Each structure stands twice: as structure tokens, then as C-alpha cells.
Thiol-disulfide isomerase or thioredoxin
Amino acid sequence: MRGRILTILMSGVLCISMVACTKSSNQTKKNDEVGVEFKHPDKWKSKQKNLDGYIEVPKENITSNMVISFIPYETMDKAKQLDKEADKIPETDKAKLEEASKEIMDLTKEFKEICNIVLIDKSKSEGEIQKSLFSKFENKDLLGKEENLEWYLLYNDKPDTNGLSEKSKKDYEECFGEIAKFKSTIKTFKPISDKEKFEKIKKLEFKTKTLEGEEIDSSILKDNKLTMVNIWGTYCSPCIGEMPDIQNLYEEFKGEKVDVIGIVIDTPDKENEELAKKILSKQGVEFTNIIPNEGLKNTVLKDVSAVPMTFFVDSQGNIIGDFIQGTRDKEEYKKEIQDRLKNIE
């Protein structure tokens, strides 16, 4: 399992874009959504399995909040133990599997923050979320300005090592001590919105295989008025966390000619395919999940910088409405489905 935090907890690889950080010989990372480019300090590279990065959904005047955290060794050990226990639960016992999944997901609360990169829209009034977030940090360094946008690096003077083992404390302090080096590499630029990136994609077409190895192509779309397509990765805990809600929607809308398809972005890869099957089983997912071929990678997946990413197509594969970045709860997705059904009826 390559030292992952197993099936449901986030991967221990610091890939801020959550999918495919831009890689080059100098290890520069770029995220179009946040509008930042940076390099990892050497000590971060050596502690990759302990580092986690994710981007929160926009709220109020906060356009994006990139959170970089340290994963304690003891948290990893807890995840491994919980995962072993979950393996003993019968696949038919959905309630226990969901409970086990939540227990593992709750371990993310033990992650220790290193710093945040926050993008603020100054054309909007300062909201309570920004006030609350900024109040947590002693340092709020301005990284850059462009038009109505401002980027800030948020961090504290000292790391919070409460509750950590000596090993975790030592490595967390080392990573925390690299914030200044990290800051010196950060460059900002005007973000490229999902709408801008994906507006040129008008249709979903594919001919590939399901996770079970069955041939499948986009002709299956004609059997339904609307199909919800959810792009996810085996390393992405937010993706996995929203699966029960998506499965519930799949069951609820079956009778209304609405289908759901998952695209596992970090496949084809034998190990990831097996991991994906395990995740789907534990989350009680019954809708079809497919392995992307070159056609999908060169179209809808080409500009995906973060997962989960969700979009909707009609019976002809035409994309209906905008792409949705990040997670949503059941009721939010339900409204998205209902709105799109109105547009095609």
C-alpha cells in the first residue's frame, strides 16, 4: 500500500492540487485554482508521507484556502489498525462499514497545521469566516496582490505539539521550521477558474473499461435523461467521504432516469484499481466506476487540478451546466440534479 494512511485517510504525499501537481526537474508545484506556484523545502520532501495538503471550498470573501498539515505517526498507526478492523466487517453490513469509515475520517482532526495560503477577494466585504480564520494565526504575511485579489500566508510562531509522540514532535517541528523557506519560493498569479478551463469541453465521450474489467462506452448515457459524473482519486479523503451521499442520490433518482458514473483519476494502475475496489466496497457504492483511457485523459481530465470534480451530461453526452469543484452534501447535489433536469426537459 506504499505507506499510505490506507483506504480512507488522505495519502501521505504532499500534492496540493490533490490530483496532479505540475512536476518538473526543479520540483515546482503549480495550482491554477489558487493562483500559486512554489517549491517544497528539502525537509518537506524527506517527510512526504507525513504531509497533507487540501483546498477548501470557497466561502464568503475567501476564494480559496490551501491548508498544509503534518500527519502524526500515531495517527497513521491508528488508521492502519482501524483499517484492519474494518476489513473484518461483512460487506453486507453497510451501517457498520459507514461507522468504520467515519471513525477513520475523524482521524483527520489529529492533523497538525503547518500553514495556510489564503486568497481573498477584496471586492467583497470581510466575512466572519475570514475573521475567524485569521484570528487563529499570529502571522498573516501578504504574498501578492492583483486587481481585487490578495494572497496571504498564515502561520504561527511556534508549532502546537500537544499530544504528539517524541518522534512526531521532532519531525513536525522540523517541517514547521521550513515555513520561511517555503514562503520564499511562492509566486502568485491570477487564478484560472474551472469555468474558464472547462468551457471548451462540450461533450463526454469514452470507450474504456470499468473497475471490474468490463468494456464500457458513452453509448450507455442514452439510457438516462441525466448522468452525474464524479471524478475522484483513491488518495482523496474528501472524495471518499462524500461517496455515501452520492450513493444515496443514485438510489433515490434511479426511477427518474438519472444515473451516476465515477471516474477513478489515478488509474489505470493495478494497485490503485484494487484500492479503489476496496474503497467502493467499504463505502457501499453500487454505481459504475470506470478507468480513464487516453481519450478521457486528453479531454475532461486534462485540466483537472483537484478532486473531487463533478459534472453532468444529458443522454447525448452534452455537458449540462458548470463543473463543480470540491465536495457537496446530499441536498446540495440534489438541487444541482433538479436544476439540470429542468434545463433538459
Remarks:
- The chain is about 30% helix and 25% strand.
- The longest helix spans residues 73-87.
- Confidence is low (pLDDT under 50) at residues 1-26.
- The two ends are 46 Å apart (CA to CA).
